[in-house]
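Put briefly, the fold is written as integer tokens. The lines below illustrate.
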Amino acid sequence: MDLLQLYSNPMQCNINARKYSKQDAGNQSNVAELSLKTKSKKEIRLVEILTNYLKGCAKSLQLHLPQIQNDKGSDVKTELQPNKTPMAITGDHLTKPDNKANNGAAEKLEKSSSTNRNVQKNLLKFPVVPLDETLDRYLDSVQPFFTEKKFQKEQELTYDFLQSSGLQLQEHLIEASKREYNWLTERWTTATYLRHRAPLTVFSSPCITFPKQHFPNIQQFLDFTAKAIYGMCEFKKLVENGQLPVYTMNGFQLDNSQFHHVFGTVRIPRRSCDILQQFDSNYVIVIHKNNFYKMPVYTAEKRVLDVYQLRKQLAKVIQSGRPAGPQIGLFTHDTRDNWTEAHEMLCRQEINAKTVQCIEKALFTVSLDEPVEVPAGQERSMLAAQLLHGGGIHSNSANRWMDKTLQLIVNPNGMAGICYELAPADPQPAATIMDYVQRHICNPKYGQEFSDPSDYGETSSSEELAELQFAEINDCIDFWLMAAKRSINLISRQLRMSAFQFDCYGRSVIKSHKMPPDSYIQMALQLAFYRRHKELPAQQEAAHLRIFSSGRNEIIRTTSNESLNFVRAMVSKRATHRSRLLALLAAVEYHQELTKMAMRGCGVDRHLFGLKQMARENAEPLPKFFYSDGYQRSTNFRIVSAQLTTSHDAFMANGPLNSEGYGCSYNLREDDIIFAVSAWQRDPHICAELYGYAIESALVEMGELILATNRR
């Protein structure tokens, strides 16, 4: 039995939570039968030909651009701008200790004159949209998957739902909304995250990279790490002091509350449903060679320790001479049920309980990894893999604590980034932290109070660096540790990453044609899938809901009749350049309308999720509508896309939601685009590398379409 069978495959996103069920093998009958090797060579050659052609015409492409369409909105970078929410995964449910960039926004964002969190008192209440409007949009989203006759059946099922059980569930949801300012967030967090039993590793937690670093010696390695720790602590101070900028959309403030949920937060395993706790700590946990160290980061006067003082403590860790510790960190890669049992067994011994509690209460963890060999040309892909899962038991996987919301990971070979647990908040806070740190660490004097190290004296912290200890592993704990080893090895072996830079053009060229860049990229992802697999995928990305109090995000259902017409036009030999361009314009315009609706709380999926929750909470049977072919197919997302927009040479990476599709994150920069594609290595037709080639081909083909139409 392999990993995905162990967790009931494929991982089918089902709105309520990720449901895992065996899929009909016939679903893949129309996939192209070309061998991977042959297909790879053909696609590589196509990319080379079209790329060279487009590069040769780049100047004319940028200087002679027709005014094709009115600009539907402005795209905003994430230079300390908390407006992009790139993932389609959400949740927000914190408990006290005593008890997770959107897609190229279609709405114009502006910076408010106010920065204090306390003034955000007039955030909007999350609405309950009329059910008939949501179901109309739902039918529009499923129509591309069916023939006319089968679609009529879906219409009948949907109409019956509207007139019967759906109406009753809608009334329950309206009543819930009267009692709660945001009826969605806590329910979504519990159902999608805290009750989710698969591992956090890859199945849930994304990563965000720093640009590739260069460490000529161990001193530079420690200096970067110390500056990153200092920067993260400084950012925490900005959050606590209410100094983050507050952005507005159409005159309404965007909620910054997610930024308050990431420091000191941990997800603790429990049977059937995990819990989130947040602590106000004065230390971080440093992990080196599987050993754990409690490292203070504040002075007795509550100031962040200087970079020199932090570096001095990190040097003590590196020079401690401790042999590799027990692989306790591997527990956090296992299924949540397994980790729950191991957590209970581990903490029965007092020394283990104290160590685990110390780790859980830290502000964040810092993993000082062992160097890994990086094959030429695979630097980005290896970086994403190391940040997502650590490479397995013989690499750096035990040098992690996946339950912590923030894990800073640094390797002496120059790879660095943040692994992020999504339950407390979306990835936007982590992306903003990365951007903040990267913009400051370039300053050689950043975080240094004195120019002469001799002026520091001893560390002025109220505590000293402390080595944490675990008791000797007994047979019971070893049993669960063996299970964790099997899980992480299967994950690291079966996940395939392909991260690359498309350097023909970027945001500036797309915007010059008055097209919204994100919608343009979404159509390229769909065209690439259609060319690879000869069928239309259910495709999603996220739009932020931060215009609402405690808002997280809503799904944009990218697949539409307009996107279907576009990909058909692109693959048709009879279609003219003009008809293809018009189909592209119609598709991106409709995607922008979907984005606007989603950001205003008028999407499809969160509303339907709410109705399912009402059935559960009121002990009512789940209506047949949720078992229909239309609902099941439209929520089995085979492309899960996420955008992180930053000017840095950085990107986000996330795992796929099922074994039949891809995870695809991208950083839309001015003159290039960085992609990170992931896929499980189960279906021979699903290949992250080949889908990456197909994305490049689609982008070049679309660029050539614009250029050819311009010439005409």
